[in-house]
Structure of Radical SAM protein:
Amino acid sequence: MAPTLRNQYQTATSSAELAQFRAAAWQFYQPVAPVAVAAFGRTHQLRPGLTFTPFANAVRCNAHCAFCSEELLRHEGHQLTAKRLINDYPAYFQRLRQVLLPFRGFPLGLSLSGLEATAEPVWLRELLACLTGLEGEGVVFNEKVLYTNGSGLATQPDLGLALEDFGLSRLELSRCHDDEAVNQQIMRFNRNQPIRHNAVYAATVGWLHRHLSVKNSCILTRLGIATLPDVERYLRWAAGLGVRQVVFRELSRLEGSYLPNVFTEWIEQNRVPIEPLLTAVAPTLEATRPGWEYAGSTFGYYYYNEHYRWQELEVIFETSSYPALQAANATGVLQKLILHSDGTLSGDWDPDSRVLSRVPKPSLDYYYPSA
């Protein structure tokens, strides 16, 4: 696996080194030298490899995942951008051009996430067209990833063709359990969403594989996938759908960084720590579980991954820390760029934090319906 600007990849050569990787996790990441970029009347320090996210919330999300990060509130009390919908598409895309053109020539990763980008196909198609035009003007996306629950791809397959034409690098498709009833308890799709049914999900995945690189993403929870036998059963199911890459993610470690609410309580009650799973798969490099082969480890600025081969699949276990993410942000080096739905460009999921540029006050009217 080739290293990228976004993380650092190493292969442990001894059990002692692997133990060191696990103990240090994201702390093993060595920040690269930032790059100074002039934009919006100031010089900003950017981490090479940082990603840009046009926060997807043209409509309310069509699932209500019990672990949704957009329902978490920081102690500072700032509201996250998910509560504000994009109501005027032409004005939004004009703003998108304004915030990206200053970064022409600086390679960015494109991370299509937020709420559910495929829930509003018109917005997504216009977004892809706008971003394609910006690439023609010198904006560089050296990786393009869509994080999705797949709902819009199930009802409008031509969205997959549009993503293929756009040159999407990878589609990360969320599914938290191989049993549709258990998955529904965790992801809580609106009842009118066909993707909640396994038969629809399987057909959607099968079609997508003919056009895009698809990675399954499974959040580990006590309610869902929690043990290594659970993991292996999920992998057999995913392999039967043609999936060749699966990531199992521990719920992000909050460590008191957010105000208590029903979502933080659910997260902490249902957290499945990654360490026992890693120990079960590979207590040492010399004694991995039969059928499993260690391939390497990835260190990011707030996450740690271990990569394995299981049968014909690449399997990744991931753990991450919100306090580590916030600590990296606090250094003054921009770790990512997010265009919020009120037109604010910031370096944080909070639109009031690490602001680079805001829309002049009178122009905000187009984001809200008339009273």
